[in-house]
Amino acid sequence: MEKFSNISILTKTFNDLPIGVGVFYVPDLNDIKSIEYVFMNKVLLYEMRKESHEVIGKKITEVAPEAFDHEGGRLVMETYRKIAKDGGKINLGLIEYSNHMVAGTYECSVHHIQSNYVYVMLRNVTELEQIKRELEIKNTQLELKNKEIEEFVYIASHDLQEPLRTMTSIVNFLKEDYGNKLDETAHKYFNLIENGAARMKQLIRDLLDYSKTAQSEELKEINLNQLLEELKSDLSDLIIRTNTSIEIDDLPNVKGSKTELRLLFQNLISNAIKFRKPDVSPIVKVGVEKRGFYVSDNGIGIDEQNKENIFKIFKRLHSQKEYEGTGIGLAHCLKIIKKYGGNIWVESTVGKGSKFLFTVAN
Ligand code: ADP
């Protein structure tokens, strides 16, 4: 087997690197015009649009005189000189460079090798930077669109309340004034209108709460133990009526908005009670473990394929007849948790119960 010299091994290695590497000699440590090319790997030669024999052993002034007229070029060469003289290394970060052949953004660092010698590492990040800029623009546009949609939902749901109120009152007037003249079928129709209106009212209320989450509220240190005590008392009617046993662990304080955290726990606890098994008293546990906070129940459970779906807005797995609801609760929980930089998920076995876990990133 042919034995390679150290130099050819190193040259091959550097040529295969996906970043630009070059070695420079600075004979006069006070003059950037004295800098010479010692080695340029393939990537660097490509960036310069040159062949090795056109540069090696030559001065930068001969090969790329235009670099001395360019701010980015001068900065890089001044750094070669400084590092060749003083030692150490300098990360120049992002540098814009252009000449008649190339133009782009480069990430650049300069390192000392030995007296009068430096090496440079260079990465062309033009495309990356371009993609980053485009992504930033898209993100801003998306944020604006989201804000618009949320405002629209708020306004639309707010304005929908008024005609709904009118409709409900008119049905009430009709029932009061003409009730005894109406037959059974007419009463049935009125009941259908009333039920529909009540459901729509709940939907609008949930949508309004959902859209309000986006409106920024100052985040404060919230005492979750106190919050859950208040919540338990608000839900006492439901808890007694369903014979629910509810156990709440000692919980730490978290940073957040009280309204949002309350809605989050309220949705999870009321779901834990709502989706109970017939003839089995609900047992609901609220606590915290290594992975996050949790609300668990001994209810009907959720099958594997719906564990992610249920967090989508309006997604429901049951008919109104089986379990009432609007399908907004969990979407709202997800929205709140995302706003806090956390995560929410469910572990569940059909027929045994569910455990909703969530983190808040603070
Ligand atoms: P809603 O309760 O109004 O139907 P949610 O968004 O709160 O809407 O929940 C979406 C769906 O997820 C529910 O319709 C139900 O099928 C399922 N679900 C939520 N919580 C539970 C739970 N604790 N146990 C079983 N299923 C649940």
Give an overview of the whole structure.
By secondary structure, the chain is α+β, with helices and mostly antiparallel strands. The chain is 47% helix and 21% strand. It has helices at 6-16, 42-48, 52-55, 60-63, 71-86, 126-178, 184-212, 224-234, 236-241, 258-274, 329-339, and strands at residues 20-25, 36-40, 89-98, 103-114, 117-124, 220-222, 245-248, 254-256, 283-289, 292-296, 343-349, 353-359. Helix 6 (126-178) runs antiparallel to helix 7. The radius of gyration is 34 Å and the shape is elongated. Bound molecules: adenosine-5'-diphosphate. Adenosine-5'-diphosphate (ADP) binds next to helix 10 and helix 11.
The amount of helix comes to 40-55%
The unreliable regions are none
Instruction: Find the count of extended strands (DSSP E, 2+ residues).
Output: 12
- What spatial form do the alpha-carbon principal axes imply? elongated
Biggest sheet, in brief?
A: 5 strands, antiparallel
- Helix count, DSSP H or I runs of 4 or more residues: 11
Distance between the termini: 61 Å
Mean of residue pLDDT? 90
Strand order of the largest sheet: 2-1-5-4-3
Write down the secondary-structure element order: HEEHHHHEEEHHEHHEEHEEHEE
In terms of DSSP E residues, the strand content is 15-25%
Distinct compounds present: adenosine-5'-diphosphate
> Radius of gyration from the CA trace?
34 Å
Structural class: alpha+beta
